[in-house]
Amino acid sequence: MTTTKPVVTIENFNITYSTKRSRMTALDGINLTVEQGEFLSIAGPSGCGKSTLLKVVAGLTAATSGQAQRRGQQIKGPRRDIGYVFQRAALLEWRNVRGNILLQAEMRGMDKAKAARRADELIEMTGLGGFEKSFPHELSGGMQQRVSLCRALLHEPDVLLMDEPFGALDALTRERMDIELHRIWRETGTTVILVTHSVAEAAFLANRVVVMSARPGTILETLDVPLGSYRDYAATMEDPDFVRVSARVRELLGASHTAE
Description:
By secondary structure, the chain is of the alpha/beta class. Helices cover 35% and strands 24% of the residues. It has helices at 50-58, 97-108, 112-125, 141-153, 171-188, 199-205, 233-238, 240-252; strands at 8-18, 23-34, 39-43, 65-70, 73-74, 82-85, 159-163, 191-196, 208-212, 219-224. It has a six-stranded mixed β-sheet with strand order 6-7-8-3-9-10, with helices on both faces.
């Protein structure tokens, strides 16, 4: 019987930075496994090392000690098989929607015809049909993030890393983007690792939620989210399992009496 290696394995991982005045530990004793097709949310206070952990998976940050692996191979240097979505869309103002998405293809030297077909698929999947020739200043914040998501998915990455991608959006737009992201994840089967400050977002989207401590960042607890693959937003907010997981995340973060 053959078994598939986890997409990401992090073992006893530590990162310490030294300055002229002091020595600071960013991540301390991180152990984490991410399986194929999983949606993993990482929640924690500001400055706890959530974004640093994403950079570890992307090969942008190395360990002081411990190891990080992608499918059983040591992560050494930047990875080309990942997609990355940041808090701000970072679109080129002089390129339209289609041009911004295809920038990924140009940078990677992808086959032009294949990239164009993939771009068309993603534009339709994300509801951007009819806006292909629009420029960033003509789009809402939510639509700009859709373009950023398309760009990150263009090369069909093995893992999609998302660093607080909807943090700058208003509450209603963020809700819609969460619903869209969950739908896209179901349709593509891409492994997703999401960093977020929102407890509701973390629990709504994920199969598992990793809760981190304040710096030095450690994993306090990993919570399974026993909800179905299809999640209606309103119904999920009232689901007892969602309420239980969200309450536990807030408790771990020391914010059980703080409004979302």
